[in-house]
Amino acid sequence: MAGDDSEWQKLPTDEKVQHKSWKARLSGYEECIRLFQAQDNEKSAEFSKYLGLLKKFVADSNEIAREKALDAVFSYVENASVATKTVSEVSSGLILKCFNSRLKTKERAIDILMMYIEIEKQDVVQEELVKGLENKQPKIVQSCLEILRRALTEFGSKTFPIKPFLKSVIPLLDDRDKSVRDESKQLLIEVYKWIGKTLISLIQNVKPIQMQELQTEFDKLNPATDKPRQTRFLRSQQDLKLKMEQETTDGLATTTLESMNIENNDDGDDAANVDPYDLMEPVNILDKLPREFYEKIESKQWKERKEVADELLTLTTNNQRLLSGDYFELVKALKKVIAKDSNVILVITAAKCCSGLAKSLRKDFYKHSLGVIEVCLDRFREKKTSVVDALRETCDICYPGTNLEQMSETTMSMLSHKTPCVRQYTQQFLTKCFAMATTTTLPKKVLKVYLQALIKNMSEADSGVRETAAESIGTLWKNLSEKNVQPYLTDMDELKLNKIKEYSEKAVLLNAKGEPRGAAVVSVTTKKTDPEIVKPSEPHSESSRSKEGAQKAGTTKKKQVSATTGKKAGGTQSATISTNLNEPYCEQELPVEEAEIKALDYVSEDTLQGLTDSDWKTRLASVEKLFDKIKTLSDQDVERECQLFLRLITKTPGLKDIHFQVLKARFDIIIHLATKSNKFSQQSLKLCLQDVLNKVSDAKNSQTAKLTLTCLCEACSFQYVLSLILPQINDIKNPKTIEQILLWISQTIKEFSLVNGLDVKLLVQICKQQMQNSNASVRQSAMILISTLHLYMGKTIRTLFDDEKQTIRTLIDQEIEKNKDEKAPLASKFYKRQQQASLSSGTAKHPVQESVDDEEMGNYEMETDEKPDRMESLLPRIDISHRITEDFIKQLNDKNWKERQAALETLKTLMTQEKLIKPNLGNDLIDALKLRLNDNNKMLVNLALNICQLLATALGQNGCKVHAKTLTPAIMQSFNDAKPQVRQCAISTLNTWYEQCGFLSMFDIESVLELFQKGNPFMLQELCGWLASVLQKSTPGKCAELKQLIQPVYTCLEDRSADVRSKAQELILPLMIHVSYPSMAQAANKLKSASQAEKRTTRPQSAPLKPPTGLKSSEDLMEGNDNRPATASASDSLATADPKNDKTKPKTSFSLIKPSQLKTKSLPLAKSTIQLKPSTDTPEKQKILSKTDKRLAKKSKSTLFERRSLLTNNSTHRQQEEKQLSYIKKTSSMDLKRTCYLSGGSTSSLSSTNSSVQSTTVSNSHHPFAMLRSLSNRELDEQQQLELVTQPSLLTTTNKSRIPIRIRDSTSASTYKPVFYTQPN
């Protein structure tokens, strides 16, 4: 033996591996391993020596030697470039010799095959593995399946495609060997991970029990944790492998192959990119057709025709991919049947055959598409719905094979067909084609051809033709934009144009696949937020419910539909919390059968049967028993089983019960469930809402039904419930039901307030349609609803009905007039979920408290010049920015005035048609409008002013604030015009802007000052007049920039024009109210002496007392310039009054009132107030003082009165008064008042102890503005009602009999309202 060993040991390696001794071969294999690994060059000549020997390596008869041979083969494949030439013979040897061997050998064989895949020979390996699936030995088949699964898992579906092996794997689910069945199932599960639900359509022929098992496994997959990834790469992908490993170690996000521009697996896109059609094997059905098919399809016997047509339909249905071939004769025969066969069943069958061929052949059928569409359109003359539906489906499937330009000739003939239904259905088909069109597929020359025919059909007598034509044009309008369609519709009347716009808003644009254009975006999003699989919770476990709630709270970003797509399970339904607080919870739908089984836990079987019994007494008793049981349950149990109980009471006859007592009992259960359950779900709401809605017109249960709807609104939100109700109203036939629904909506709006989320546009459309109802009660209820909307939304809602008939507008105005003095009520009911959310937040207010706060501040807010329009966002506004094109702007700025006029007329028409628009108009349009407001052609100026007025109404409050400071200076420029009509139009336009956005939003001090400096007398006259009228209506203290107007106004008082001087005098007092008297007096003192003397001579003959100059405005006090005396009694301020001239009869005096004598209600601590009671009960005094009290109650937030001067200043103050007081007027309508200003803004009115004061003239050579002082006293007395303020600590130093008010500090335990009273004679 030793001699034999020495003999083969001398042999070279390539001869050792072929030696008959297994030891020699083993030694040769070991040398091969060292040799292969030692080679530096993969193209070394050593590798070529063993090229033909590898197939013998893997087939070695000795197990020990074979293991070492496999190691050598692996080293060879890993290092040699010529290894790719050996893949076929080596793979087949491995499959046959190694897969049924010991485990170590099998694992090494698998490694070799995976290495062959790595060196990019996956197609050959896959082919050999598929052959191995046909082997009779189960171990080999199971091993092949295992390698297929591992290769797919590691390399991915793009590197290792699924199609070649899938067809061979599916039959193995029925294999007699369990290991084979299990491994094939695991392989299909791995395939499902990569291509998703596409696999389901490919395994439809699997047995139901196997399909159920697979579906169960598919449902167990978690998209987050079971997401497939490529973990092994080809030699050409090694650079990507290094980068991905580096990113993984650095903690960075994984680089996708798309970003690297390298073909690789991306699991997120595989399911979307894999087309089942590509995985199917094409079938040749031409060879499977009956021999006499073409003879029988033209037979006179309809049964023979139907027989062969059914056989063809079976072939096209069962084979979803057909082999390319000559289908010309077949399609020709089918077209003949569609066009001429009198049997409609055959027509339907032939149409379905054409659809099947188009689906199965795809691009190979495109050459037949136009001919099939033509015969289908012509056959639309058939009136049976089943025929029309089949033909329409065929047209839709065939359309991708052609385009609108190719079809134009055919469709034009159909659009002018003598049969109306042909035109109607053709237009419906075109509507879908237009939804998929683009400017490329529908050029202007083709668009013009289609529009001409469609516009003509808009005037047809048949309503169906008119409506479908409008729908087609509306789809074009939305898809191709207005600028491409509008030029062809210039001669169309407004009614038809509005119909087209209505359809344009409803149109849904489609992509090339016929799906909504937003669907692709949605699908990408949903892939990253896959549906949550809802787990069943234990029925009576409180801890499990709390744990579930915590998990739900952590996954609020998932879609609400996750609950409905999750796995159904018995037990409690788990609700998915919606992140939208305006929508109710969403839970799994409970089947009726499961509900009946679960109901036995709460009620007996007799009670369940009694709910549907024909005897009303039995039904009533059963409903009452059920209600009694529900009452005994806790709120948590009611919340959990809410849907269950609703299933029981809505089971036939349910809420359609004809007996009023039983119906009322059912309603009571719904009210109880809605009240007790804090998680009333969408599914529960939909179970009962429709039936409750139909019962609002019930004679005996109408009020109960309305109460039920209100409770549902509290449980599920008013917005959500109304969104389900509104779309149904116009379809209801019973006028009484419509009337009661509208009345309920009107009342519920008042209870919940007009909250955000309501579809006001839809509400308005419903009101418009119901105003045309023949029933007077319905019309009246619609007007009541409009009046309710008017309470919350104001005049804007009324503009939406301007296009109605005059009689309807009059009725609406009359209904609104009834509630003119009524204010919008605050919300008294709230959505429970929002209420809980607000209460759970530490900083959030309770909804009721917010309403109270709104009510407290409401009166003050309504007195300001800028009223907040909180309902602005609810109004439906239209974006017209796409209609403001560059060509339109050029036309507005054209040199030819006729072109400019045409552009302005177009803009005016647009403003008239679109009642409410969005503010995104663009700077180009605003700049062009400014130029037209200064146009040389006065007619265009007037037109531009009218457009600006319409624009203010259309923009609304928020929109006007965007453009006010840009447009209003240009509008004021029209004051320069000599024509009074132009100036009056400008004033009207400015007033409209003021009503919309208030004074502050439109006042630009720089522009106004420039107008004062450069304006002509017309400008100064109108500007002063308009400012005077606006400032009188505005709240003082809001605009500090008004002080800059004092000097220009003084200049206008010296103007040569009497009209300018007159208007400037009217402006003095409103301006002084806003900027304070001291500011006006200080500016007047800076004038020249001549001007001062001139102003003294121009004062009015009757003027009241001016306020003391020592008293300052709130602004001055806040700046720390308070030099007033600490106290000032009535006699101090009237030191110059002459009591001899006092001729008034009634005498009035005032004194302090003790707190115990007061009967008025106390206010909160921080809001101390003073209430004045005039000495005479005149209505004017009561009204003025009442306004003052309201203002005080809202504005005071700290101690009411402060005085920061010393008592020693009294004498100085009196001397200043005597010097400055020039004119005093006798007043009888109101006691003489003295004015003080305080730092906090709150004031009080003080009446003097003298009943009247006679006018006294005091000459003052140092102060020229006597007219200013007299005007200030008179108007401040009637409009401002500012109060004298005294420090509480100094009251004791004054004459109490002459002090008309009692003052309490805000830090006191309680605060009272002091009152004046008339001393008894």
UniProtKB/TrEMBL annotation:
Biased composition (Polar residues): 561-582
Localization per record: Cytoplasm, Cytoskeleton
InterPro entries: ARM-like, ARM-type_fold, TOG, XMAP215, XMAP215_CLASP_TOG
Top-level taxonomic group: Eukaryota
Limits of the TOG domain: 1-227, 278-513, 589-825, 873-1108
Chief site of localization: cytoplasm
Any one GO molecular function term: microtubule plus-end binding
Cellular component GO terms held in the UniProt record: cytoskeleton
Region feature Disordered, mapped onto this chain: 519-582, 1086-1150, 1241-1260
Residue stretches of biased makeup (Basic and acidic residues): 527-550
GO annotation, biological process: establishment or maintenance of microtubule cytoskeleton polarity; microtubule polymerization; spindle organization
Pfam families in alphabetical order: CEP104-like_TOG, XMAP215_CLASP_TOG
Skewed-composition ranges (Low complexity): 1126-1138
UniProt entry keywords in alphabetical sequence: Cytoplasm, Cytoskeleton
Protein known as: TOG domain-containing protein
